[in-house]
Each structure stands twice: as structure tokens, then as C-alpha cells.
Amino acid sequence: MLKSKRAQREGAAVAILIIVIALFMTFYILFIPPEERSKLLQQDTTSTETGTSTPAKIELLAESPGLVTPTTESATIHRIPSVNVFLKDEPKIISLAQSLVVSKGLFSRSTPQLKFQTKDLDETTKVTLFFSVEQSSGELRLKVNGNTFYTEEITTPGIKIIEIAKSFLKQDNSLELSVSSPGFAFWSVNKYSLKELGVKQEFERKNNEESRTFVMSSEEKNNLKSVKLKYTQQCNFPLSKETTRLDILLNEQRAHEAEIKCVTTDEELDVDPELLVSGTNTLTFRLEKGDFSFNLIKLETQSRASERPTFYFSLNEDQYSDIKSGKRSINLHLLLDKNTKAKNARILINSNEVLMQTDRNSFDNNLKDYVLEGTNFIKIIPVNSFNIVGLKVTLE
């Protein structure tokens, strides 16, 4: 009996203790901050308090512009070294004797033999023997290397020029001079008194075509608007006739042709841009006859303005209000070349301008102060050439 009463008292004490602990925990939960209560109860405070979730990121614009280039329209000058072209006869004078006598009589004779060389016969156009006649009687006979090339009587004094056939000539030559016999007038002597004997060898000097090269970038070629060729023409030796033909070729295609005179003049020509190529170009001057120099050669190219990339995006009333109130942000993201080269541009957002000067592979800018409700545009004006791999405008 005693044990039963004792057990009842202990059970009542435990029950009271449990009730006290439960009451304490209830009051603790009620009075702690809501955030802590949410953690304890594993509840989403944001959901219960506001009934909304974080706004999703919106991509308003996504483009891949690629290569952008400066839009300035200006002349590029390619300076080209001078050219000297000629096709001309160039003489060489070989002196043989200051004076000599050729004679033949019944009891005496004089038949001089003279040695001379004619080099570069394959380039030789003409060979002539020249001399001055002071006294003459009988028939003058001339041989070279055993070949007779002249047999005539000269009746008047003066200068005589006689052509020698190239086929008779060698590198080393022997010239023999003789005169005919007086015949029945055996008591007389046929005689020639000659002075200033020489050989004139004429060469054709040929450099009638000469080329120069210059390099054009693909950017310049792709934006070509017009091309001008400028040079100074100088005539170095009088022409045998009034004019000669000049052809100017660009990459083996005719860019200009004209009949030119032996004058010094400045020329300016229009050239078809289609004749030019990206990379190495070859400019050729070709002359029919004469001796000319072409100096201060310049090829001037005028580039057309390349189009400036322009992109558009729109903001509705709610989006615009959220941006201005600070609930959301609007950002421009540019993904650029992965190199350390300078990437400089002016970026127009509506009537506002942002300067981009970076050597990194990305560029970001907040557009909050530049956007309008409705349609907005972004225009990129590059200062130098670079690639824009990606362009995005996001609402976050």
C-alpha cells in the first residue's frame, strides 16, 4: 500500500515537469525572430511573408556581330619605288687607226691589216666601219675575216660609213684594206689616204618591263571605293619617232595604256579597284621603245565607310518601372577576342555614349541610366578592328 502511493506521487511529478517544458518551448517559439522560427519549423519565410519568388533573368538581346572595323573614310597611300624602263640602241666605238695609206702600183703596194674585237654579238644589232677619205684613186676593197664586204671606187673626199654583215664577224676579227691595180697605166699608183678609222658596234639594250610589289590588307581591299595611280614621267633620251607605247599592268591585267611623248610630266590615273587583291599586288610598267624613268609612284586608295553595327531591344512598362525603381538591373555584356590587343570603341545607347577601352576578352556596363520605355538601340562605332564574339543585353 505504501509503495503504491509513492509511485503515484512520482508519476504526477513527471507529468508536471513535461507540461512545464512544453509551455516553455511554446513561449520560446512565439517570441523568437521570424527568421529563426522559420528555420525551426522548416518553413520558407519569403513564401509565407510575401507569397512571391525571385524574378527570373530575361535575355533581351543576343547577337554575334563578328569583326568590326573603323568607319572613317580616308585615303591610304602605297608608296612604290621608282622604275626605269628602256629599249634602245647603245653604240660602242672601237678606234682602229688615226691615219693609214692603202696603195698599189707596179713596184709597190700597201695593204694594211687591222685587228679588232666585237664582243656580245648576240646582243649586237649593227656593226659599221667608218673613216674619212682625203685622197682616193682606184677601187677600194675591204675584207673582214676573209669575207669581202666592200668593193667600190670613192671619187669624192669625206666621211664614209660602211655596214659589216654580222655573219662575217667573230669575237676576234681581222680587217684587210686593199686597192685595185692601175692596170695599163702601170707607171701610176692607185692610192687611198684614210684618217680616223674605226668600228661602231650598236647594241640593243633591253629592260622594257619592270615590276614592283606592294601589300594590301583584306580590310582595305573589302572597303575599296576608288583607286588612283600617281607618278612623275621622265624621258631620258630622245625618241626615234614622236611617240612610244606605254602599258601599265596591275596583277598582269592592263590598268592603263597610252602613247607617250619624250617629255617630263606628272600623271594621275584612275584604276579599277577590281584589279587589286588582298595580299601582294604587282605593278608593272612596259615600254615599246625609248628610255623613261617613272618616279614618285603612289597608289592612293579611298575606302568606303563600313556599316556601323546597330542592334535593337524593347522594354515594356513593367520592366522599365522595375529598372528605374531599382528592383531589377539591365546590363550590356560583350564577349571579345581572347587576346591582349586593344579593343576600343564608342558605344551609343539611344542618345548616350559609353567609351570602351580594354585589352580583356569581355566588357560589361549597366544601362540603367540610358534605356527608354519601348524600343532601344545600341550602335557600336569601333576605333580599331577587333572581333565581338557575343553581345547580350539582360534584365536581371
Model description:
This protein is mainly beta and 396 residues long. The chain has four domains: 48 residues, no CATH class; 101 residues, Jelly Rolls, CATH 2.60.120.260; 116 residues, Jelly Rolls (Sandwich), CATH 2.60.120.1200; 96 residues, Sandwich (Jelly Rolls). 14% of the residues lie in helices and 55% in strands. It is built from five helices and 26 strands. Strands 3, 4, 5, 7, 10, 12, 14, 17 and 19 form a nine-stranded antiparallel sheet that branches. Strands 1, 2, 21, 24 and 26 form a five-stranded antiparallel sheet that branches. Strands 6-11-8-9 form a four-stranded antiparallel sheet, with no helix packed on it. The two termini are 78 Å apart.
Question: Can you name the CATH architecture of the largest domain?
Answer: Sandwich
SS summary, helix count: 5
Biggest sheet details: 9 strands, antiparallel
Bin the helical content.
10-25%
Terminal Cα span: 78 Å
CATH class of the largest domain: Mainly Beta
Helix and strand content put the structural class at mainly beta
Looking at the structure, what is the overall shape?
rod-shaped
Radius of gyration, in Å, reads 52 Å
Strand residue content = over 45%
CATH fold-level label of the largest domain: Jelly Rolls
Give average pLDDT, whole number: 86
Number of strands: 26
Number of domains: 4
Low-pLDDT segments: 1-5, 43-52
